[in-house]
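Feature request disguised as a bug: please show the residue count (259) next to N-formylglutamate amidohydrolase in the output. Example input:
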Amino acid sequence: MTNDQMTTQQKPVTVFNSNGQSRVVLVCEHASCFIPQAFDKLGLDDAALQSHIAWDPGALAVARRLAEHLDAKLVASNVSRLVYDCNRPPSAHDAMPARSEAIDVPGNAALTQMQRQNRTARYYDPFRTCLRDVIAATRDPVIVTIHSFTPVYLGKSRAVEIGILHDTDTRLANVMAQTAGSHTPANVAINVPYGPQDGVTHTLKEHAIPGRHLNVMLEIRNDLINGSAGQKDMADCLANWLRDALAELNISVGAQCSG
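Example output, currently without the count:
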């Protein structure tokens, strides 16, 4: 880890391309597997801490390149989702999961209410405030969250390669699904491998739906983005796909920031 990475990860949230002029606001809640030293690795070994239970491998690299393509601001969490999952409200049991997939997380077992409140204040609240402020400073924002998922979960293989997720607002997700074949040969599905019933649309519900901002959550199978070439290809694909989907809705990607 470089000194620059350490400095970034000491902050709970980072905004990349903070001067971006696009109306698209990108979000990467599971960008980092970093666990502050005070948590003593949450009792896990290094293999677990580098695996998908700790973060979304490849998601930040895709999101950063996508931000460059679109000239979009990108809000990313700098802490592992095992410390606090910024795509969950504080009331959610898996905001600080005691078990992830088939792995127990000893450092999250039997957390007191005070410990949960302290983590919320230290990691989630700054992330939520930062994202809220970035969205508020962008005229007519479009919220796009970037995630990755494991090809095998609880021993079962997943055929889907890109998931287009939505909550109650289906506008952008539906257009992306309808135009998928023009942009990628990947196996694409709506609300797969997760959906609102799994509690994964918190960011959309918190930051997009109340203001009726167009929004979508994109899940990419992580074997497709486990290297720089795949990350580049995926970001290039998503950039064109989003531009065309928004054009179908008579919306241009570019916009001036307010304020």
